[in-house]
Amino acid sequence: MGQIIAALGIIAALGIIGTLVGIIGTLGIIATLGIIATQRHSSSTNSEVTKKRERDNSSCSEEDQKIISSSSPSSSTPRWKHDVFLSFCGKDTRRSFTDHLYSYLKWKGILVFRDDESLERGTYISQELMQAIQESRYAIVIFSKNYAFSKWCLRELAEIVEWEEKKNLTIIPIFYHVDPSDVRKQRGTFAEAFAAHEKDPMVDIEESNTWRNAFTKVGYIKGEHINGDRYESPIIQQISEKILYNYKMLNIRIHEKQKIVGIDSRVGEILTLLHMESNDVRFLGIHGMGGVGKTTLAEIIYYRFSSQFEGSSFISCIRERSTTTPDLAPLQKQLLSMIMQQEIHILDYREGLMLMSTRLRNKKVLIILDDVDCEKQLTALAGDHNWFGPGSRVIMTCRDSHLLERNKVNRYKVEPLHTTDALELFSLSAFDETHPPEDYKDLSMDFVNYAGGLPLALDVLGRSLCKKPIEIWKGARNNLKANPKTKIFDILKISFDGLEESQKKLFLDVACFSGQEIYVNFKKIYSADVIEVLIDKSLLSKDDVYFKERLTMHDLLKEMGRQIVRSECQEPGRRSRLFHHEDVFHVLKNNTGTDAIEGIVLDFPLGGILGANHGEINPAAFSKMRNLRLVYFCDFAYVNFYDFRHIKWSGNPLEYMPSDKLQFLRWFKYPSKSWPSSFQPKNLVVLKMPYSCIEQLWTESMVLPNLKKLNLRNCKNLIEMPNLTNAPKLEKIDFSCCISLCKFHSSIQMLKQLQELNMCDTQIKQLWEGFVDLPNLKKLDLGSCRNLIEMPDWSGAPNLEEIDFSSCTSLCKVHPSIEKLKRLQILNMSRTQIEQLWTESMVSFLLI
């Protein structure tokens, strides 16, 4: 819906709504979908679950089993760049059905590849299109009357069929005003088309036969037949629902067989308690020890049955996220936005309570609250049964059964797996078979007994021993036998001990430094293969939550990693990582830091008083930390709880901090006004210093060859942008709300890797002059730049997708080069002084 808002904002500001209505009429926008078709390439948006789709209530359907069997643990998990590849004849459907389908899929958050019109001028498929087909999960083929006349379409179809046979590409045919049997047998206009191709000397008989075979094969696949006897919008919705359903099944990796072991009986028991056919509102708490499979069980319930509800929401990792967002309003916002399928703005916890208690009363919803550990969370997210409409179900996972009992929540306890299921799960992880080989049977039973039926331990153990010689197995078994009081951490540590040094380093970083912001940036610091090793060994997970990728680690593994670090030395200053605020203050105040320290995270427990009783800190305590890589002094979503300025420093911390190995620096409310010339972090990848006192960064050009993110948001005293000439890898820059910043630095014009630039609410008067080369720039935010008087030349930024000029009250003219932005999706020019917009052709380029 953002495109509608943007377009309305542009035109309403100019008082030409009548023109808009005329344009909308000519574009054939689907009223029932309520969306405008956007530009030609895909981008993801948040979306929510599909509705009114009947599923089997007790076990995996035939379709589910197909998904499950399509990928085994022995093969690498497919990683697609696109969810859908659209194959169509532009002459027939580009500006009608295909455009509507593309826009709806995209609105639902499905990543769609649709080729540019310019690509179809050639005869052969470009490498870009071939790669797009190979990197797609689904191919939607829209057969129309002129489809077969296009050699381009035929070669595209042949490539799709080839990859359907080679890989797990699923084809969904749509027969658009053509008879499916004509497609199968190449009759009617298709016969004419093939006859023409076979007379063409440029087409050999072998290629023509390949096209015919592809037509026949896809023609026999069950798809959608559109012949004018029903509305198209429900068909588009059905296609979207199918893709979303299967996508979510894959998203939780239900196709991995170990996720299914022992699950069906538990699902059946939970369904008995939920009594889905009942119209009352029911709460259910799934409880049990860590690693027993509570979250996995809740995920499967959610993804298997959410389509039966009018809205649904899965809120994960609530315990962890509550420590960094103590107000809980962000969690309320996420829950409501997902269910309402629109952005819900919540100022604080109390407003969230009001909205939670009123907005869902008439909706049948399914809500999963994962890892709840205190009553405030329950009050904020599911305070009362009467908040929700008839037939609603709220499921929460929790370790504390007494919390559920105190709140009168019906309970289901997840017990460890019994021996048969435990052995099957372990065998699947270790051998990709349901039973171990005969010579490994006794060893396998030993490990199963040590794991105590915990799925997490069984999976991690099995993966750590997979493809290892039997001597390694015996050594690991003997180590466990030597300690009769073996705990779960000792079992899990076997997998950690088998890692290489770089892999161990990443594991401990993730375990010790909580927070998705850090996790996202680890992807910038560590190579993809290191991350993938941890994922393959089940030590790290990579999930797509509503099409946003994130790294996660089970809390038992996280605690094991922290225990490993704590066991390095009794003195915190001799440990590799400091992650508890008392340890951080101990080291800084007593100057006990050493070169063992690689990372510091400073945050505070809920209700803590920042800086209390800590006095003044001498920053010279940093000087001994010569191997420092990560510094994270974090903030919270609601900063009134804490104030980093309460920490008093006797000098500029960066003057003493070793910079040679520093890769990540995040310092909320950095206390000093200047950047020391001696601080030269040449290996820095991420630099974030929001809300700081800094007035100026480096004066000369700083050599930062690896820097990818720069964030100085809300540094109200910053008067000058730094010289970024020697930071060629920068991808994101944020100077938003730097209200003293009045000049654009020309070095930004040379950043060819730059993707996002945010300078909203600054005092700048002008961006770049003339042509600049910013080929990767996609998002530009200049909202509330009230002194900005003119737009720049857009010719050198052809891939811009989103531009915000809202509340630029001095802006009065559109630069004509904006017509060249063929990928532009959102343009916000509300509350500007623009009196004349553009020609009709320029309006059309934005809305088609």
From TrEMBL:
Species annotation: Carya illinoinensis (Pecan)
Entry superkingdom: Eukaryota
Region feature Disordered, mapped onto this chain: 44-79
Bilayer-spanning residue ranges: 7-37
The name this protein goes by in its record: TIR domain-containing protein
Keywords: Leucine-rich repeat, Membrane, NAD, Repeat, Transmembrane, Transmembrane helix
InterPro entries: Disease_R_plants, Leu-rich_rpt_3, NB-ARC, TIR_dom, WHD_ROQ1-like
Gene Ontology MF terms in the entry: ADP binding
SMART domains: TIR
Domain TIR, residue spans: 80-247
Pfam families assigned to the protein according to its UniProt record, in alphabetical order: LRR_3, NB-ARC, TIR, WHD_ROQ1
One Gene Ontology term from the biological process aspect of the record: defense response
